[in-house]
Design brief:
Distance between the termini: 53 Å
CATH topology of the largest domain: TIM Barrel
Pathway: Amino-acid biosynthesis; L-lysine biosynthesis via DAP pathway; L-lysine from DL-2,6-diaminopimelate: step 1/1
Function: Specifically catalyzes the decarboxylation of meso-diaminopimelate (meso-DAP) to L-lysine.
CATH class of the largest domain: Alpha Beta
Strand content: 15-25%
Family: Belongs to the Orn/Lys/Arg decarboxylase class-II family. LysA subfamily.
GO molecular function, one term: diaminopimelate decarboxylase activity
Number of strands: 21
Cofactor: pyridoxal 5'-phosphate
Shape: globular
Helix content: 25-40%
CATH architecture of the largest domain: Alpha-Beta Barrel
Structural class: alpha/beta
Protein backbone atom coordinates (compact mmCIF):
# COMPACT_ATOMS: atom_id res chain seq x y z
CA UNK A 1 0.00 0.00 0.00
CA UNK A 2 1.11 3.55 -0.68
CA UNK A 3 -0.11 7.15 -0.73
CA UNK A 4 -0.77 8.60 -4.18
CA UNK A 5 -0.31 12.18 -5.38
CA UNK A 6 -3.88 13.00 -4.31
CA UNK A 7 -3.01 12.11 -0.73
CA UNK A 8 -5.20 9.00 -0.96
CA UNK A 9 -4.36 5.51 0.19
CA UNK A 10 -3.74 3.01 -2.62
CA UNK A 11 -3.89 -0.77 -2.52
CA UNK A 12 -2.95 -2.97 -5.46
CA UNK A 13 -2.49 0.15 -7.57
CA UNK A 14 -6.09 1.24 -6.92
CA UNK A 15 -7.17 4.47 -5.23
CA UNK A 16 -9.22 3.43 -2.19
CA UNK A 17 -11.51 6.46 -2.53
CA UNK A 18 -12.33 5.44 -6.10
CA UNK A 19 -12.99 1.90 -4.87
CA UNK A 20 -15.38 3.19 -2.21
CA UNK A 21 -17.22 5.31 -4.78
CA UNK A 22 -17.44 2.49 -7.31
CA UNK A 23 -18.33 -0.44 -5.05
CA UNK A 24 -19.81 1.27 -1.97
CA UNK A 25 -18.98 0.85 1.70
CA UNK A 26 -18.38 -1.09 3.85
CA UNK A 27 -16.06 -2.81 1.41
CA UNK A 28 -13.53 -5.59 1.83
CA UNK A 29 -10.53 -5.15 -0.47
CA UNK A 30 -8.01 -7.95 -1.08
CA UNK A 31 -4.60 -7.53 -2.73
CA UNK A 32 -3.94 -10.34 -5.25
CA UNK A 33 -0.17 -9.75 -5.32
CA UNK A 34 0.20 -9.82 -1.55
CA UNK A 35 -1.80 -13.05 -1.26
CA UNK A 36 0.35 -14.72 -3.91
CA UNK A 37 3.57 -13.50 -2.34
CA UNK A 38 2.66 -15.07 1.01
CA UNK A 39 1.65 -18.34 -0.70
CA UNK A 40 4.94 -18.52 -2.58
CA UNK A 41 7.02 -17.86 0.51
CA UNK A 42 5.36 -20.71 2.38
CA UNK A 43 5.62 -23.08 -0.58
CA UNK A 44 9.29 -22.21 -1.05
CA UNK A 45 10.04 -22.80 2.64
CA UNK A 46 8.37 -26.24 2.57
CA UNK A 47 10.26 -27.15 -0.61
CA UNK A 48 13.50 -26.40 1.21
CA UNK A 49 12.50 -29.09 3.71
CA UNK A 50 11.78 -31.45 0.84
CA UNK A 51 8.73 -33.47 1.79
CA UNK A 52 5.55 -31.63 2.59
CA UNK A 53 2.63 -29.50 1.48
CA UNK A 54 1.09 -26.16 2.37
CA UNK A 55 -2.65 -26.33 3.04
CA UNK A 56 -4.43 -23.00 2.98
CA UNK A 57 -6.76 -22.77 5.99
CA UNK A 58 -9.99 -21.95 4.21
CA UNK A 59 -11.82 -20.81 7.35
CA UNK A 60 -9.77 -17.58 7.28
CA UNK A 61 -11.23 -16.40 3.97
CA UNK A 62 -12.94 -18.60 1.41
CA UNK A 63 -14.84 -18.11 -1.81
CA UNK A 64 -14.64 -19.58 -5.29
CA UNK A 65 -12.12 -17.01 -6.53
CA UNK A 66 -9.85 -17.54 -3.52
CA UNK A 67 -9.90 -21.30 -4.07
CA UNK A 68 -8.83 -20.77 -7.68
CA UNK A 69 -6.06 -18.40 -6.61
CA UNK A 70 -4.50 -20.75 -4.07
CA UNK A 71 -4.82 -23.65 -6.51
CA UNK A 72 -2.81 -21.63 -9.04
CA UNK A 73 -0.13 -21.14 -6.39
CA UNK A 74 0.19 -24.87 -5.76
CA UNK A 75 -1.35 -25.05 -2.29
CA UNK A 76 -3.67 -27.64 -0.87
CA UNK A 77 -6.81 -26.70 1.04
CA UNK A 78 -8.00 -27.27 4.59
CA UNK A 79 -11.80 -27.22 4.89
CA UNK A 80 -13.87 -27.42 8.06
CA UNK A 81 -17.44 -27.71 6.79
CA UNK A 82 -19.62 -28.97 4.00
CA UNK A 83 -20.02 -25.39 2.81
CA UNK A 84 -16.27 -24.87 2.48
CA UNK A 85 -15.92 -28.23 0.73
CA UNK A 86 -18.79 -27.44 -1.66
CA UNK A 87 -17.20 -24.08 -2.48
CA UNK A 88 -13.91 -25.81 -3.26
CA UNK A 89 -15.56 -28.32 -5.54
CA UNK A 90 -17.46 -25.56 -7.37
CA UNK A 91 -14.06 -23.94 -7.91
CA UNK A 92 -12.88 -27.29 -9.36
CA UNK A 93 -10.22 -27.56 -6.68
CA UNK A 94 -8.39 -30.93 -6.90
CA UNK A 95 -9.94 -33.21 -4.24
CA UNK A 96 -6.62 -35.00 -3.77
CA UNK A 97 -5.30 -31.76 -2.24
CA UNK A 98 -8.18 -31.28 0.22
CA UNK A 99 -8.07 -32.16 3.93
CA UNK A 100 -11.22 -31.95 6.07
CA UNK A 101 -11.17 -30.92 9.74
CA UNK A 102 -13.86 -30.24 12.32
CA UNK A 103 -14.79 -31.48 15.79
CA UNK A 104 -18.36 -32.43 14.86
CA UNK A 105 -18.55 -33.35 11.19
CA UNK A 106 -22.07 -34.34 10.23
CA UNK A 107 -23.05 -37.46 8.34
CA UNK A 108 -23.81 -35.30 5.30
CA UNK A 109 -20.42 -33.56 5.45
CA UNK A 110 -18.61 -36.88 5.70
CA UNK A 111 -20.72 -38.23 2.86
CA UNK A 112 -19.59 -35.32 0.70
CA UNK A 113 -15.96 -36.00 1.63
CA UNK A 114 -16.26 -39.65 0.66
CA UNK A 115 -18.22 -38.97 -2.52
CA UNK A 116 -15.83 -36.27 -3.71
CA UNK A 117 -12.82 -38.44 -2.91
CA UNK A 118 -10.86 -35.92 -0.87
CA UNK A 119 -7.36 -36.82 0.25
CA UNK A 120 -7.79 -36.90 4.02
CA UNK A 121 -10.38 -36.76 6.77
CA UNK A 122 -8.97 -35.67 10.13
CA UNK A 123 -10.66 -37.75 12.83
CA UNK A 124 -11.83 -35.83 15.90
CA UNK A 125 -14.24 -38.24 17.66
CA UNK A 126 -15.13 -41.91 18.08
CA UNK A 127 -18.57 -41.12 16.65
CA UNK A 128 -16.93 -39.86 13.48
CA UNK A 129 -15.07 -43.14 13.01
CA UNK A 130 -18.36 -45.03 13.07
CA UNK A 131 -19.99 -42.71 10.52
CA UNK A 132 -17.00 -42.71 8.21
CA UNK A 133 -16.57 -46.49 8.25
CA UNK A 134 -20.28 -46.91 7.43
CA UNK A 135 -20.01 -44.47 4.53
CA UNK A 136 -16.80 -45.99 3.22
CA UNK A 137 -18.43 -49.43 3.27
CA UNK A 138 -21.51 -48.11 1.46
CA UNK A 139 -19.35 -46.49 -1.24
CA UNK A 140 -16.92 -49.44 -1.30
CA UNK A 141 -13.97 -47.11 -0.76
CA UNK A 142 -10.96 -47.01 1.49
CA UNK A 143 -10.63 -43.63 3.19
CA UNK A 144 -7.34 -42.07 4.27
CA UNK A 145 -7.57 -40.58 7.75
CA UNK A 146 -5.37 -38.80 10.23
CA UNK A 147 -6.11 -38.11 13.89
CA UNK A 148 -6.14 -34.79 15.69
CA UNK A 149 -3.94 -34.74 18.77
CA UNK A 150 -3.90 -32.45 21.78
CA UNK A 151 -0.15 -32.12 22.32
CA UNK A 152 -0.61 -30.33 25.65
CA UNK A 153 1.03 -27.10 24.49
CA UNK A 154 -0.33 -23.89 25.98
CA UNK A 155 0.51 -21.28 23.34
CA UNK A 156 0.72 -17.68 24.51
CA UNK A 157 -2.37 -16.25 22.86
CA UNK A 158 -5.97 -15.32 23.67
CA UNK A 159 -7.71 -18.14 25.53
CA UNK A 160 -10.50 -18.30 22.94
CA UNK A 161 -8.00 -19.23 20.22
CA UNK A 162 -5.86 -21.70 22.16
CA UNK A 163 -6.50 -25.22 20.91
CA UNK A 164 -3.53 -27.42 21.82
CA UNK A 165 -3.99 -27.66 25.60
CA UNK A 166 -5.55 -30.63 27.37
CA UNK A 167 -8.83 -28.84 28.10
CA UNK A 168 -9.96 -28.30 24.51
CA UNK A 169 -12.93 -29.45 22.46
CA UNK A 170 -10.53 -30.45 19.68
CA UNK A 171 -8.62 -33.71 19.35
CA UNK A 172 -7.49 -36.54 21.62
CA UNK A 173 -5.22 -36.17 24.61
CA UNK A 174 -1.89 -37.91 25.12
CA UNK A 175 -1.77 -37.67 28.92
CA UNK A 176 -5.19 -39.26 29.39
CA UNK A 177 -4.51 -42.01 26.84
CA UNK A 178 -7.39 -41.09 24.54
CA UNK A 179 -5.12 -40.87 21.52
CA UNK A 180 -4.07 -44.48 21.94
CA UNK A 181 -7.66 -45.66 22.28
CA UNK A 182 -8.81 -43.89 19.13
CA UNK A 183 -5.84 -45.26 17.18
CA UNK A 184 -6.69 -48.81 18.26
CA UNK A 185 -10.32 -48.26 17.30
CA UNK A 186 -9.45 -46.93 13.84
CA UNK A 187 -7.19 -49.92 13.20
CA UNK A 188 -10.20 -52.23 13.66
CA UNK A 189 -12.08 -50.52 10.83
CA UNK A 190 -11.48 -52.30 7.49
CA UNK A 191 -12.19 -49.28 5.27
CA UNK A 192 -10.15 -46.66 7.14
CA UNK A 193 -6.45 -46.23 6.42
CA UNK A 194 -4.47 -44.44 9.12
CA UNK A 195 -2.06 -42.07 7.40
CA UNK A 196 -0.90 -39.59 10.00
CA UNK A 197 -1.42 -37.25 12.92
CA UNK A 198 -2.62 -33.67 13.14
CA UNK A 199 -2.33 -30.91 15.72
CA UNK A 200 -2.94 -27.19 16.02
CA UNK A 201 -1.80 -25.32 19.11
CA UNK A 202 -3.58 -22.00 18.61
CA UNK A 203 -3.63 -18.81 16.60
CA UNK A 204 -1.79 -15.50 16.41
CA UNK A 205 1.46 -16.99 17.75
CA UNK A 206 4.66 -14.92 17.56
CA UNK A 207 7.19 -17.47 18.84
CA UNK A 208 8.87 -20.53 17.35
CA UNK A 209 9.53 -22.42 20.60
CA UNK A 210 5.94 -23.76 20.89
CA UNK A 211 6.22 -25.26 17.39
CA UNK A 212 9.58 -26.87 18.10
CA UNK A 213 8.28 -28.35 21.36
CA UNK A 214 5.15 -29.57 19.56
CA UNK A 215 7.27 -31.20 16.85
CA UNK A 216 9.17 -33.28 19.41
CA UNK A 217 5.96 -34.40 21.10
CA UNK A 218 4.31 -35.32 17.81
CA UNK A 219 7.36 -37.18 16.51
CA UNK A 220 7.66 -39.25 19.67
CA UNK A 221 3.95 -40.03 19.55
CA UNK A 222 4.10 -41.12 15.90
CA UNK A 223 7.14 -43.33 16.53
CA UNK A 224 5.47 -44.88 19.59
CA UNK A 225 2.29 -45.68 17.63
CA UNK A 226 4.25 -47.06 14.68
CA UNK A 227 6.43 -49.26 16.88
CA UNK A 228 3.49 -50.53 18.94
CA UNK A 229 1.28 -51.44 16.00
CA UNK A 230 3.82 -52.19 13.28
CA UNK A 231 2.70 -49.19 11.23
CA UNK A 232 4.52 -46.89 8.88
CA UNK A 233 2.74 -43.57 9.45
CA UNK A 234 4.92 -40.76 8.14
CA UNK A 235 2.64 -37.70 7.97
CA UNK A 236 2.30 -34.96 10.59
CA UNK A 237 0.13 -31.91 10.07
CA UNK A 238 1.27 -29.11 12.39
CA UNK A 239 -1.65 -26.77 11.71
CA UNK A 240 -1.08 -23.04 11.48
CA UNK A 241 -1.42 -20.19 13.93
CA UNK A 242 1.38 -18.01 12.55
CA UNK A 243 0.80 -14.46 13.78
CA UNK A 244 0.48 -11.23 11.81
CA UNK A 245 0.92 -7.56 12.72
CA UNK A 246 -2.42 -5.94 13.54
CA UNK A 247 -0.94 -3.09 15.57
CA UNK A 248 2.54 -1.66 16.02
CA UNK A 249 3.37 -3.68 19.14
CA UNK A 250 2.74 -7.00 17.36
CA UNK A 251 6.01 -8.59 16.30
CA UNK A 252 5.38 -11.57 13.99
CA UNK A 253 8.09 -13.55 12.25
CA UNK A 254 8.41 -13.99 8.50
CA UNK A 255 6.86 -17.16 7.01
CA UNK A 256 10.34 -18.56 6.37
CA UNK A 257 11.33 -18.07 10.01
CA UNK A 258 8.39 -20.07 11.33
CA UNK A 259 8.88 -22.91 8.85
CA UNK A 260 12.67 -22.99 9.08
CA UNK A 261 12.53 -23.21 12.88
CA UNK A 262 9.97 -26.02 12.71
CA UNK A 263 11.75 -28.04 10.04
CA UNK A 264 15.21 -27.54 11.55
CA UNK A 265 13.82 -28.81 14.83
CA UNK A 266 12.27 -31.83 13.12
CA UNK A 267 15.50 -32.72 11.29
CA UNK A 268 17.64 -32.39 14.40
CA UNK A 269 15.31 -34.52 16.51
CA UNK A 270 14.99 -37.19 13.83
CA UNK A 271 18.78 -37.27 13.32
CA UNK A 272 19.36 -37.61 17.06
CA UNK A 273 16.97 -40.56 17.18
CA UNK A 274 18.07 -42.16 13.89
CA UNK A 275 14.59 -41.81 12.38
CA UNK A 276 13.42 -40.81 8.92
CA UNK A 277 12.08 -37.31 8.38
CA UNK A 278 8.26 -37.27 8.22
CA UNK A 279 6.12 -35.72 5.55
CA UNK A 280 4.83 -32.49 7.06
CA UNK A 281 1.89 -30.22 6.39
CA UNK A 282 1.20 -26.70 7.59
CA UNK A 283 -2.03 -24.73 7.46
CA UNK A 284 -1.46 -20.96 7.16
CA UNK A 285 -4.65 -18.98 6.75
CA UNK A 286 -4.54 -15.70 8.63
CA UNK A 287 -0.92 -15.06 7.64
CA UNK A 288 -1.82 -15.41 3.94
CA UNK A 289 -5.14 -13.56 3.82
CA UNK A 290 -4.96 -11.21 6.80
CA UNK A 291 -2.30 -8.68 5.75
CA UNK A 292 -3.61 -8.70 2.17
CA UNK A 293 -6.97 -7.21 3.12
CA UNK A 294 -8.37 -3.88 4.25
CA UNK A 295 -11.91 -2.75 4.98
CA UNK A 296 -13.20 0.62 3.82
CA UNK A 297 -15.92 2.40 5.79
CA UNK A 298 -17.64 5.75 5.41
CA UNK A 299 -17.68 8.02 8.46
CA UNK A 300 -21.10 9.19 9.59
CA UNK A 301 -22.06 10.60 12.98
CA UNK A 302 -19.35 12.09 15.20
CA UNK A 303 -20.18 12.47 18.88
CA UNK A 304 -18.01 14.55 21.23
CA UNK A 305 -18.42 13.79 24.93
CA UNK A 306 -16.56 16.56 26.81
CA UNK A 307 -13.69 15.29 28.97
CA UNK A 308 -14.51 11.69 28.01
CA UNK A 309 -13.93 10.81 24.34
CA UNK A 310 -15.01 11.37 20.76
CA UNK A 311 -16.94 8.58 19.06
CA UNK A 312 -16.59 8.38 15.28
CA UNK A 313 -19.29 6.13 13.84
CA UNK A 314 -18.84 4.24 10.58
CA UNK A 315 -21.30 2.42 8.33
CA UNK A 316 -20.20 -1.05 9.43
CA UNK A 317 -19.01 -2.67 12.63
CA UNK A 318 -19.38 -5.97 14.44
CA UNK A 319 -21.57 -7.43 11.67
CA UNK A 320 -18.64 -7.26 9.22
CA UNK A 321 -15.85 -7.57 11.83
CA UNK A 322 -16.85 -9.32 15.07
CA UNK A 323 -13.25 -9.91 16.21
CA UNK A 324 -12.96 -6.88 18.53
CA UNK A 325 -16.14 -7.95 20.31
CA UNK A 326 -15.11 -11.62 20.46
CA UNK A 327 -11.41 -11.43 21.26
CA UNK A 328 -10.74 -7.79 22.14
CA UNK A 329 -8.83 -7.76 18.83
CA UNK A 330 -6.96 -4.57 18.01
CA UNK A 331 -6.54 -2.90 14.62
CA UNK A 332 -4.77 0.04 13.06
CA UNK A 333 -6.42 2.40 10.58
CA UNK A 334 -6.14 5.67 8.68
CA UNK A 335 -8.39 8.19 6.95
CA UNK A 336 -7.88 7.01 3.38
CA UNK A 337 -8.72 10.36 1.79
CA UNK A 338 -6.34 12.16 4.18
CA UNK A 339 -3.53 9.62 4.13
CA UNK A 340 -0.90 12.35 3.84
CA UNK A 341 -2.25 14.41 6.74
CA UNK A 342 -0.76 14.29 10.27
CA UNK A 343 -2.76 13.10 13.27
CA UNK A 344 -4.34 15.86 15.31
CA UNK A 345 -6.99 14.17 17.45
CA UNK A 346 -7.67 10.97 19.37
CA UNK A 347 -10.98 9.29 18.63
CA UNK A 348 -12.67 5.90 19.03
CA UNK A 349 -14.23 4.12 16.05
CA UNK A 350 -17.76 2.89 16.71
CA UNK A 351 -19.81 0.52 14.62
CA UNK A 352 -23.47 1.07 13.78
CA UNK A 353 -24.95 -2.04 15.40
CA UNK A 354 -27.28 -1.63 18.36
CA UNK A 355 -24.73 -2.96 20.84
CA UNK A 356 -22.58 -0.95 23.24
CA UNK A 357 -19.81 -3.43 22.52
CA UNK A 358 -19.79 -2.62 18.81
CA UNK A 359 -16.46 -0.79 18.88
CA UNK A 360 -13.88 -1.39 16.17
CA UNK A 361 -10.98 0.64 17.59
CA UNK A 362 -10.53 2.41 20.92
CA UNK A 363 -8.41 5.57 21.07
CA UNK A 364 -6.68 5.98 17.73
CA UNK A 365 -4.84 9.12 16.59
CA UNK A 366 -6.15 10.45 13.26
CA UNK A 367 -6.29 13.68 11.26
CA UNK A 368 -9.41 15.76 11.74
CA UNK A 369 -12.29 13.38 11.02
CA UNK A 370 -15.40 14.56 9.17
CA UNK A 371 -18.60 12.92 7.98
CA UNK A 372 -18.05 11.43 4.54
CA UNK A 373 -14.39 10.55 5.15
CA UNK A 374 -13.32 7.03 4.20
CA UNK A 375 -11.73 5.05 7.01
CA UNK A 376 -9.40 2.20 6.01
CA UNK A 377 -8.91 -0.51 8.63
CA UNK A 378 -5.84 -2.63 7.96
CA UNK A 379 -5.16 -6.38 8.09
CA UNK A 380 -8.79 -7.44 7.82
CA UNK A 381 -8.34 -10.10 5.15
CA UNK A 382 -8.80 -13.01 7.57
CA UNK A 383 -11.79 -13.76 9.80
CA UNK A 384 -13.73 -10.66 8.77
CA UNK A 385 -15.67 -11.62 5.65
CA UNK A 386 -15.67 -15.26 6.80
CA UNK A 387 -17.23 -14.34 10.17
CA UNK A 388 -19.58 -11.63 8.88
CA UNK A 389 -23.24 -11.84 9.80
CA UNK A 390 -26.56 -10.19 9.06
CA UNK A 391 -26.98 -8.91 12.60
CA UNK A 392 -29.40 -5.95 12.61
CA UNK A 393 -30.25 -7.21 9.10
CA UNK A 394 -27.18 -5.54 7.69
CA UNK A 395 -26.15 -6.85 4.25
CA UNK A 396 -22.74 -8.54 4.08
CA UNK A 397 -20.31 -6.25 2.21
CA UNK A 398 -18.81 -6.95 -1.18
CA UNK A 399 -15.28 -8.29 -1.58
CA UNK A 400 -13.06 -6.80 -4.28
CA UNK A 401 -9.78 -8.24 -5.56
CA UNK A 402 -7.25 -5.68 -6.77
CA UNK A 403 -4.15 -6.16 -8.89
CA UNK A 404 -1.99 -3.76 -10.91
CA UNK A 405 -4.60 -1.03 -10.84
CA UNK A 406 -7.51 -3.34 -11.72
CA UNK A 407 -10.40 -4.08 -9.38
CA UNK A 408 -13.02 -6.81 -9.79
CA UNK A 409 -15.55 -8.44 -7.51
CA UNK A 410 -14.76 -11.65 -5.69
CA UNK A 411 -18.11 -11.56 -3.86
CA UNK A 412 -20.98 -9.21 -4.67
CA UNK A 413 -22.67 -7.16 -1.96
CA UNK A 414 -25.83 -8.60 -0.46
CA UNK A 415 -28.99 -6.72 -1.33
CA UNK A 416 -32.03 -6.28 0.88
CA UNK A 417 -33.78 -8.81 -1.36
CA UNK A 418 -30.96 -11.26 -0.55
CA UNK A 419 -31.65 -10.68 3.15
CA UNK A 420 -35.26 -11.80 2.88
CA UNK A 421 -34.77 -14.42 0.15
CA UNK A 422 -35.04 -17.32 2.62
CA UNK A 423 -37.79 -15.85 4.79
CA UNK A 424 -40.96 -17.91 4.88
CA UNK A 425 -44.48 -17.15 6.11
CA UNK A 426 -46.20 -19.99 8.00
CA UNK A 427 -49.68 -20.76 6.72
CA UNK A 428 -51.45 -19.57 9.87
CA UNK A 429 -50.08 -16.02 9.63
Amino acid sequence: MKINDKGHLEIGGCDTISLAQRFGTPLYVMDDTQIRDACRRYVSAIRQYGNGMVLYAGKAFTNIAMCKLIQQEGLGLDVVSGGELYTAMKAEFPPERIYMHGNNKSYEELRMAVEYGIERVVIDSFHEVELLEQLARNYDKNIGVSVRVKPGIDAHTHHYIKTGQQDSKFGFGIEDGQIYRIIEYILTQPHLELKGLHCHIGSQIFETDPYIETAQIMLELMWDINDTHGLNMDEIDFGGGFGIRYVEEDNPLAPEDYIDALTDGIKAYCDNNARQYPRILIEPGRSIAGPAGITLYMVGAIKHIPDVRTYVSVDGGMADNPRPALYQAKYSAMIANKADKPAECTVSIAGKCCESGDMLIWDIDLPKVEAGDILAVFDTGAYNYSMASNYNRLPIPAVVLVKDGRAELMVSRQSYDDLISHDCIPSWL
